[in-house]
Amino acid sequence: MEKDDIIIETAEKFINASEIENKIRKNKNISISEIELDKKTAEKIGKNKGKYITIYFEKIESNVETILKELEVNLKNTIKYLNIKKNSKILIVGLGNKNITSDSLGYLVIEKIDIDNNIYKIYKEVEGLSNINTFEFIKMLSKKLEVNLIIIIDSLSAKSIERLNKTIQISTGGIKPGSALLKTSYEISEKTMKIPVIAIGVPTIINMNKFLKEKPKEELIVTSKDIDIEIENIATMLSIVINRIL
C-alpha cells in the first residue's frame, strides 16, 4: 500500500464509478481537483481520510501567477481546514536526496524558505545516506519543538508521463517517504504524529517496474528530460507561497 501516489490516479476507478466525488474547477489553463475522503472510502483505496487537492498545469512559464494564486488559496484553505491558529508553531520538513535531481524538491524548497519565531525548517536526507529513520526523526523533533503542524515536502511517483512536474498535490492524509521505491516505509500522518500533517508533493518520477510484465533486476525509474529546470521552478513557487502565508 503506497502513500505517495497521486490521489486522482489511485482513486480513478472509484471516481469514474461516482463512489468518490471529485470537485473540479478551471482557472485559465489550470485544473484544480478537490477530493475529501471519509474513513470508509479512504480504506478502499489505501489512503487516509482527509482532503486532497491536486493542481494540474501544462506549462509553468505562461501560468506562473495563476499557479501561485491557486497554491496560496489552497494551502491557506487546508491550514484553515485543520483549524490551525495564527502564530501556531509549524515545522517544515523537506525530504529526499539532494544529489538526485528528481528527488531534490524537498531540499530546494527548504533552502528558499524564511524562518521566524514560530516557523522551523529542516531538510532530512534519505535514510540510506544518513542512517537516521525519517519517521523517528520527525516524530522526535516535532515533539521536542512542541509544534502544532508539520508540513512535509517531497517528490511523488506518477503513473502518467503527462503529470511529471506538472502536478502539485496538497493533502492532509499524510505521506509514506520512500514508498515509491521501498516495499516498507513508515507513514507520517496525523494518526502517527498525533498532530496535523500537510503533505505537499510533486510527481517527478515513474516507477516502470509496476507496468512491466518481465521485472528487471533493478528499479527502472523514468523522469522528464528538463527535470532540473522544472523542479527548480516548482521549488521556487512553493517557497514563495509558503513564505507569503506563514
Description of the molecule:
With 246 residues, the chain is α/β, with parallel strands linked by helices. The chain has one domain: 3-Layer(aba) Sandwich (Rossmann fold). Helix content is 33%, strand content 25%. It contains nine helices and nine strands. Strands 1, 2, 3, 4, 5, 6, 7, 8 and 9 form a nine-stranded mixed β-sheet that branches. The protein is globular. Residues 179-184 have low confidence and may be disordered.
Shape: globular
**How many helical stretches?**
9
Number of domains: 1
Order of helices and strands: HHEEHEHEHEHHEEHEEH
Terminal Cα separation, in Å? 33 Å
Largest sheet data: 9 strands, mixed
Residue-averaged pLDDT: 90
Say which CATH homologous superfamily is assigned.
HybD-like
Per CATH, the class reads: Alpha Beta
Strand content: 15-25%
